Each structure stands twice: as structure tokens, then as C-alpha cells.
């Protein structure tokens, strides 16, 4: 059981280390504030746990077996990714239009505090990003059963593994948020921040287009 659990944690590390749309969104939100980044992480991991529950009850098998359902979710996920990407690119363009690098550097060095409800919006962004990805659902279905020990009750074990997976990734991605916050002095410079938003927005759009066309 211990060796299986350690192997499971190792696999979780490899999954979290693989770059994907959720990673890009977490880093992008962490540029706004540490709280926004952490709330995005919590939203993303809520999605992970939901997909783990769905996989435990075998419902993602229906998604994997139905080409129509999968394609609907795939196109929806692509639209969500492109939407987040376009929003990020527009934010970078708006920052550039608002006053040039010299003036913007002075104001961007101390970002405005998050408004009321911004934490919930960050949480919702992470949750929507994860739930809109059909590959996350199918992956959970194929990933979790591999670590159910022989003779163990499948449903409660998979639910427990899904919870461990989500909690582990909260800790993992919190390191990303912490690193971004430590580099706040550099990343808060308007030119640097705008460039990072341009890159992250472009990556999200590209991932969305890829999801839409690859089938």
C-alpha cells in the first residue's frame, strides 16, 4: 500500500509539472496578486476533485464512449481557452494604451487591491478552466484506477485518491504562486508584466485552437 501511494504521489508530481492551460492561468492570475493566484489554484483543484468523483462513479466512461458528448465538451473547452486568452491579450493591450512604459511603471509597481468578489472570480476561472477540459475527465478515468490496490473497495479508494490528488496539487501550485510573489518587484514592472500577459494570452489562444482542431 505504501509503495503504491508513493508511486501515486510521483505520478501526481509528473502530471502537475506538465505545462498546460491551468498552469498558464495560475501564473497569469498570480501576476495580479498572491490571493488571486491561490484562489485560482483552489478552483482548479476543485475541478480535479470533481473529475475524480465522476471517474470513481464511472460516469466519465460515458464521455469517453460518446463521440458527440466528447466533441461538445472539446469545443466548449476550446472556446473557454480562447476566451481567457483573448481577455488576457486585451488586458495587455489596454495597459499599453493607458500611458506608456514610464508612467505605467510607476503605477504598476503597486497593483491596485482586488475588488470585492475578485477572489470568487479567480476561483471560478480556475474551476471553469478545469471543468471545460474533456481530456481531464478522460484522464482521471484512466489514471485513478491504476492505483487502487488489489482487493481494496474501488469507489471509496478512488474518492480518497482524488482528494489526495487535489490536495497535493494545491501544495504544488502554491509554490508557483509563491515564486511569482517573490519576483513581484520585477514582474510588477509594466513592460515585463505586459509581455508576460501577451505570452500567456497567446499560449491560451494557441491551446484553445489546438483543442478545437485536433479531435
What does this molecule look like?
About 6% of the residues have low confidence. The protein has eleven helices and no strands. The protein is 83% helix and 0% strand. The chain is mostly helical and 215 residues long.
Strand content: under 5%
Mean pLDDT: 78
Number of helices: 11
Rg, rounded, reads 19 Å
Low-confidence stretches: 101-113
Oligomer: single chain
Largest sheet: none
The run of helices and strands is HHHHHHHHHHH
Q: How far apart lie the N and C ends? A: 37 Å
Structural class: mainly alpha
Number of strands: 0
Tell the overall outline: globular
Proportion of residues in helical segments:
over 70%
Summarize the structure.
This protein has helices at 2-17, 21-32, 34-56, 60-65, 67-97, 100-108, 118-131, 134-143, 154-182, 184-187, 190-214. The chain has 215 residues and is mainly α.
Which terms would index this structure?
globular, 83% helix, mainly alpha, 215 residues
Write the layout of secondary structure elements.
Layout: H1 2-17, H2 21-32, H3 34-56, H4 60-65, H5 67-97, H6 100-108, H7 118-131, H8 134-143, H9 154-182, H10 184-187, H11 190-214
